[in-house]
Specification:
The complex is a heterodimer. Chain A is mainly alpha-helical. Chain A has helices at residues 5-25, 29-53, 58-88. Classes of the chains: A mainly alpha, B mainly alpha.
Chain lengths: 101, 494
């Protein structure tokens, strides 16, 4: 296994693809949340990898910010999912159909 | 370095302190009710902030639009303009909630989240660094996810929150990915340096640069409700508490435009001018789809949600022609300020109608003009201002936008078509605004007048004065817009 920049970027693009696939195919709210998390982590991997090959540490700093913010976002998202589960006994977003027009 | 008395820092200090203290006060007081107590504190904080921005403008302490800076924030007129628009929206939301949040749980948390989200919106407009922009973007978004789902016993509020959250989280994920690509290509997160880096980029890397700009457009486009990223918007606007819909439609959407103007329009000038055609196509699609869908709606909130999508299209016209005509950006900024007041007033009117009569279906609004005369008058005036009927304020901003598109026609062939599409769409939108008017004033006969909430009346009177006053005498606002709009011409370099 080599240690080039392109390897990291390719892994990151693959993760981006997995995330987008998950969002477009899955209908379970938690799976969709995970898919979003995978995209954020793909971006973090990119940032850290680029930061390693650049002379300053801006990328790592942004990656730390992004991890912390993603944690806050997941906390809010999971709580919304729990509230929805208590109401519908289900977290399949295809079943949430009270709003349409 | 920014001085400690610069506008963004003072706004963070005022709103942040009050926003963090409100829940602590509510724990110390050990009581659940007293909504108006917290509302007054939040209102005072917002008035203090908008007063400080106005004071900075009046004493000429604000730089003309700088757009780029070494720092992460810049205290320029562009940011100040958006700060005023967003603080007006936050004040509308808070005042409207005086009435809406009565006898509901956790008022302190509610107002605290509004204040924190407002800080985020204001900082998005001021930030000149992608890290700062991202943090501000999330500070703006995360409180609104909670606020949309605040009525947790209400199924539609829950559903709206979950949909909004999934799309919002996706949009921020895409923005981080775009930032990571632009950081990798240019080695910097400062917006000025990124754009300079793009202009000297190795041509073989150009597709990646275009990909990152595309990701920015998609990420910000989700919040702005551009077609094809708009699916969540009608559901969320309908299901959310109507006061929070005000904050979303008039506030977070504008923050998306602020970020777009800072990054994409300027980046586009350097990168590749074909992007303006893409923006023009998105603008026309957004207007047309929004207006056509709005005609078919039965629910007032949902109709205004689609009309809000259409208005994102009008504003986008200005961004698409920005590199060719200085009127483009000015028209966009003018429309943004007007739209904040018009949409804010319309949604607060809906909040008033929902709390008093508990209806949002348009068929049940018969005779509203007799039941709630002042709310109806405010709603009608803001709807006609949205359609661009002279002599209301919305007319001048549309004239400026379409004038910008015609002005650009000497350089690009497709610009006049944007103006034509805009005028046709305005005519189309008059159809459904006129329909509401007819329901409210010319149908039903036996309705009695009901007492209207005082806070809603206050907002209606303010917006009637704003829309009619600045419609008859638009000079001060036009001067303000000209000062705030960044000058942007081909070959401009940071």
């Amino acid at each position: 296994m080599s240690n080039e920049l392109i390897d990291f970027v390719l892994v990151s693009v693959a993760l981006l693809g997995i995330g987008i696939y998950g969002l477009s195919v899955k209908r379970n709210a938690i799976r969709m949340l995970f898919a979003v998390e995978i995209i954020i982590n793909a971006a973090n991997l990119n940032l850290v990898a680029f930061g390693r090959f650049l002379p300053h540490s801006g990328g790592q700093t942004l990656a730390l910010f992004s991890i912390a913010i993603a944690a806050a976002e997941v906390a809010v998202g999971l709580s919304l999912i729990i509230v929805a589960y208590r109401m519908y006994q289900n977290i399949d977003i295809a079943d949430f159909r009270s709003l349409k027009g | 370095m920014l001085e400690i008395s610069s506008t963004p820092l003072v706004i963070i200090a005022i709103l942040g302190t009050v926003g963090v203290l409100l829940p602590i006060i509510s724990i110390a007081r050990k009581e659940k009710g007293s909504n108006s107590f917290y509302a007054v504190i939040a209102f005072a904080a917002l008035i203090a902030s908008i007063g400080y921005v106005a004071y900075q403008f009046l004493t000429d302490n604000i730089l003309p639009s700088a757009l780029f800076s070494e720092d992460v924030l810049v205290d320029d007129a562009f940011g100040g303009f958006f700060a005023i628009a967003m603080l007006i929206v936050a004040i509308f939301t808070t005042v409207g909630s005086f009435n809406y949040m009565r006898k509901k749980n956790y008022p302190a948390v509610y107002y605290s989240l509004i204040l924190l989200s407002t800080i985020g919106m204001v900082l998005v407009a001021y930030s000149t660094d992608l890290v700062m922009l991202f943090v501000a973007w999330e500070l703006m978004s995360i409180p609104t996810y909670v606020l949309v789902g605040f009525m947790k016993k209400n199924p539609s509020s829950n559903e709206a929150a979950l949909k909004y959250f999934l799309f919002g989280a996706l949009s921020s994920a895409i923005i981080v990915y775009g930032i990571s690509l632009s950081y990798g290509l240019t080695g910097s997160t400062n917006i000025g340096e990124v754009i300079q880096g793009y202009s000297t980029l190795d041509p073989s890397l150009l597709p990646l640069a275009l990909l990152s700009v595309g990701m920015f457009i998609a990420g910000f486009g989700f919040k702005m409700g551009l077609v094809p990223f708009h699916q969540w918007l009608p559901d969320t606007y309908e299901g959310a508490p109507p006061t929070i819909t005000t904050l979303l439609a008039a506030g977070t959407k504008k923050a998306g435009f602020a970020a777009t103007i800072r990054i994409i329009v300027l980046g586009m000038v350097v990168l590749n001018l074909d992007w303006t055609l893409a923006l023009g196509i998105i603008a026309v699609m957004t207007m047309t789809i929004g207006n056509i869908a709005a005609i078919m709606q039965k629910n007032l909130a949902r109709m205004l949600a689609y009309s809000s999508i259409a208005h994102a299209g009008y504003i986008l016209i200005g961004l698409a022609v920005a590199p060719y005509s200085s009127l483009g950006l000015q028209g966009s900024l003018y429309q943004i300020l007007n739209h904040a007041v018009m949409k804010g007033a319309a949604f607060i009117a809906i909040a008033g109608i929902v709390t008093t009569l508990a209806v949002t279906n348009i068929d049940k609004l018969k005779g509203l003009g007799r039941r709630m005369p002042i709310t109806s008058l405010g709603l009608i005036i803001s709807l006609f201002a949205l359609a661009g009927v002279p002599p209301l304020a919305g007319f001048w901003s549309k004239i400026m936008l379409f004038g910008g598109a015609l002005d650009a026609s000497s350089t690009i062939w497709w610009a006049p078509w944007l103006a034509i599409a805009g005028v046709l769409n305005s005519a189309l939108s008059l159809a459904y605004y006129g329909w509401i008017t007819r329901k409210m004033y010319f149908e039903g006969e036996t309705e009695k007048r009901v007492s209207e909430p005082k806070s809603v009346i206050a907002i209606m009177i303010f917006s009637i004065i704003f829309l009619v006053g600045f419609g008859v005498y638009p000079d001060p606002i036009i001067k303000f817009v000209e000062f705030a709009a960044p000058t942007l011409s081909l070959g401009v370099m940071p």
